[in-house]
Amino acid sequence: MNQLVETIQRAVLEALPRPEQAGRSELGQYAGMLREYPRRGGKMLRGRLVILTARAYGDDTAALPAAAAIELFQNWVLIHDDIEDDSEERRGQPALHRLYPMPLALNAGDGLHAVMWRVLVEAGARRKILQEFANLIETTASGQHLDLSWTLEGRFDLSAADYLEMVERKAAYYTGVAPLRLGALSAGTLPHPAFSGAGLELGTAFQIIDDVLNLEGDHDAYGKEIAGDLWEGKRTLILIDYLSKAGAADRKRAEEILRKPRERKTAEEVAWLHERILASGAVRRARRLAEEKAAAALAELENVFAGLPDQEAATAATRLLRALVEREK
Amino acid sequence: MNQLVETIQRAVLEALPRPEQAGRSELGQYAGMLREYPRRGGKMLRGRLVILTARAYGDDTAALPAAAAIELFQNWVLIHDDIEDDSEERRGQPALHRLYPMPLALNAGDGLHAVMWRVLVEAGARRKILQEFANLIETTASGQHLDLSWTLEGRFDLSAADYLEMVERKAAYYTGVAPLRLGALSAGTLPHPAFSGAGLELGTAFQIIDDVLNLEGDHDAYGKEIAGDLWEGKRTLILIDYLSKAGAADRKRAEEILRKPRERKTAEEVAWLHERILASGAVRRARRLAEEKAAAALAELENVFAGLPDQEAATAATRLLRALVEREK
């Protein structure tokens, strides 16, 4: 395993309560629930990006707590997201609320959220880092509200611009912007303004590619249910594009299917919609847009990293930025 | 309105996004959801206790952020609790997830949680105060796990000691211990050890009285559904006591009713159980135990406050401690 991945995962797991030290058995179960998603691993792209960015700036000695904390963020927010979307799988295994009753999973997410702050506080993280975490949670929650409310209210009057605003808030900020800013702040420097502009574009490209993989990825590599976004009725750029170009009858049928909650959709309906979308070229167009966004953002960020003191770390960081948008799974 | 209540509520509301400044309408809705429980008011007992304790120690100039933050804690945790218990009402109005779809309410709770930390961070709260917040959230979540798992798993093999451990974690720490400790820490002093011991006893008495009021309170004053604990199948001290003394047939019927989820219970079943419990004397015994615990804890805490520099504030603080356990609603 990548050395940095191992270091971050160890820091994450060490911050969590241990089932064998929990005392009574119910608290052992609780500790196990907090460890369930972190234990499943993950690529830790955001955590690694924090450390490599700090190192590129010349000082990663204080970066590990922020790296562990952004991974803890990712874990608690996924527990809650999976409940909100009623998702089936996470990292190739059942979502936490499908292993335990939903109320216990919700509560475990809150416990994990507190651990995230504890890691930062115990490390004596400086105020700007704590502010960045408040920013990233508030931004993500506002984007999650957009995403959820569109599905829950059966909204179809959405444009590509609507999707992009939602994704910037919901995913791009914490994926593309926050890790770079946290890296710079951990090194004691002011984050470069390009981190906010180009970082947001790169994070947006990351999410569009995630949407693409959700429809045409390989299940084992992707680790989540294929076409899960259709089952959950997500308003992705791909779906918005497909609907805008579909014939009236197809659009009507597609909207009817999407309006149904997961449990009322049939596999045949989802398969029909999946096939229509793949045939429409909307996935290909979304992938092309993501690639264009990613190329422009990467060029700008590589330019920033080229001016930083530790060029070995800078190269590793930009390689990771590239991996964010070049993943095939 | 009490001057302190007004000051704390203003600080809480000022920390929250404003619907009219949110930009798009969905974000206005989100901002409104964050403000919904804080807007409903509440007695702000914990927040006031933070400020009065700091003042009794001689310096409340830095106490308002911690006071606002503990009220924000109370608000986000209640949003999530109400979902976990599928409660009907909060502060005399529908629970948030009954006004909006559950996923939106869950997400709003997370947004409010982030605002709680932002208030502390923007105020430059010292590390010990941030640690105290991490402690109180972790403690509360572990107690919530006990409470929920007992109900969800249909457990009846519970003793009074089990209940007391659950309540210490779930409610007594953040109600009886944390406000006193936060007050001392805000004044720049080390919290008195009695805050942890006697504070926990007082907080336990507070919760037992809450359980009593749930069964024999006045609906309008209590602000929650009467007998809601029976609908939700809560393992209270009162219930554990009742079951331990009930005849075999009554116990069997009671357990059958309690095992059913809310939507499968009938009003007649709950009314029968409610009546049996009231007739059993278990409520009266619980109230007496709470009064004994409260009296001993209050005596110890009054003794501590008697030695503090600002005696006017000390008197106000101990009056508030008394109000915690003497409320009739």
Task: Please characterize this protein's 3D structure.
Two copies of one chain form a homodimer. Chain A has helices at residues 3-14, 25-39, 45-56, 64-85, 96-99, 102-122, 127-152, 160-186, 193-216, 219-222, 228-232, 237-245, 248-259, 267-280, 282-306, 311-326; strands at 89-90, 93-94. In chain A, helix 1 crosses helix 4 (64-85) and helix 3 (45-56) packs across helix 8. The first copy, chain A, is mainly α and 329 residues long. Chain A has a two-stranded antiparallel ribbon with strand order 1-2. Chain A contains 16 helices and two strands. Chain A starts with a helix and ends with a helix. Helices cover 75% and strands 1% of the residues of chain A. The model of chain A has no long low-confidence stretch (mean pLDDT 95). In chain A, strand 1 (89-90) and strand 2 form a beta hairpin. Chain A binds chain B through residues 24, 26-27, 29-30, 33, 77, 80, 83-85, 101, 103-104, 106-108, 110-111, 113-115, 117-118, 121-122, 124, 127, 130-131, 133-134, 137-138, 141-142, 144-146, 148-150, 152, 165, and chain B through 24, 26-27, 29-30, 33, 77, 80, 83-85, 101, 103-104, 106-108, 110-111, 113-115, 117-118, 121-122, 124, 127, 130-131, 133-134, 137-138, 141-142, 144-146, 148-150, 152, 165.
Task: Give the secondary structure arrangement, pairings included.
The structure is a homodimer of 329-residue chains.
Chain A: H1 3-14, H2 25-39, H3 45-56, H4 64-85, E1 89-90, E2 93-94, H5 96-99, H6 102-122, H7 127-152, H8 160-186, H9 193-216, H10 219-222, H11 228-232, H12 237-245, H13 248-259, H14 267-280, H15 282-306, H16 311-326
Antiparallel strand pairs in A: 1-2
